[in-house]
Write a structure and sequence with these properties.
heterodimer, A: mainly beta, five-stranded antiparallel beta sheet, B: 115 residues, mainly beta
């Protein structure tokens, strides 16, 4: 099976940098994805790491280390609109489904 | 270009009733997945439809069933509703290419409340 653990809540101020961690236990997977979900909204895709290392997309970066069973999402120049829940997810080998982490609620204050 | 659409937005049912939720995938997508998201938790995979057949299924009882139509739209049916079925039901679509399943496009969801 697969399990992905995330901190339940992270707080930060506008303009700051925050890192959301994801530790996982899985027998095999294609890569690590990150999704953002605002209250009452749909999850939206942010980034994907197929290989170890850092992927950068604008203010967001994502990192994966398969040897450490660990990944993170880095958000820079935080804005109030970044307040949302963030989920890491993996697609297990041989499957088309996504398995989501426990989710991290990010609160950005002025 | 319309994204993934779902109907209805909200639904209230009582225990034992049956419910049907609907989803239209993003244009150009032929694969539809359904997820259940309980409050404060991550989405849980229910099943996936491709070419009008259920291709994969998560750990959900047979009370949960679905259908995909020739135009790729899909329905989720839940019979004999339980209080624990109260959740946000999300539909996600993707094109049927291997790498695309890592980036799924989600609809706004249907909020189901079972009383």
């Amino acid at each position: 099976g697969q399990s992905l653990e995330q901190p339940s809540e992270v707080t930060a101020v506008e303009g700051a940098i925050v890192q959301i961690n994801c530790t996982y236990q899985t027998s095999g997977f294609y890569g690590l994805s990150w999704y953002q979900q605002h209250d009452g909204g749909a999850p939206t895709f942010l980034s994907y790491n197929a290989l170890d290392g850092l992927e950068e997309t604008g203010r967001f970066s994502s990192f994966l280390s398969r040897s450490d069973s660990y990944g993170y999402l880095l958000l820079q120049e935080l804005q109030m609109k970044d307040s949302a829940s963030y989920f890491c997810a993996v697609r297990p080998s041989g499957f088309q489904k996504l398995v989501f982490g426990t989710g991290t609620r990010l609160l950005v204050s002025p | 270009d319309a994204g993934v659409t779902q109907s209805p937005t909200h639904l209230i049912k009582t225990r034992g009733q049956q419910v049907t939720l609907r989803c239209s995938p993003k244009s150009g997508h032929d694969t539809v997945s359904w997820y259940q998201q309980a409050l404060g938790q991550g989405p849980q995979f229910i099943f996936q439809y491709y070419e009008e057949e259920e291709r994969q299924r998560g750990n959900f009882p047979d009370r949960f069933s679905g259908h995909q139509f020739p135009n790729y739209s899909s329905e989720l049916n839940v019979n004999a509703l339980l209080l624990g079925d109260s959740a946000l039901y999300l539909c996600a679509s993707s094109p049927a290419t291997s790498g695309s399943y890592n980036e799924q496009f989600f609809g706004p969801g249907t909020r189901l409340t079972v009383l």
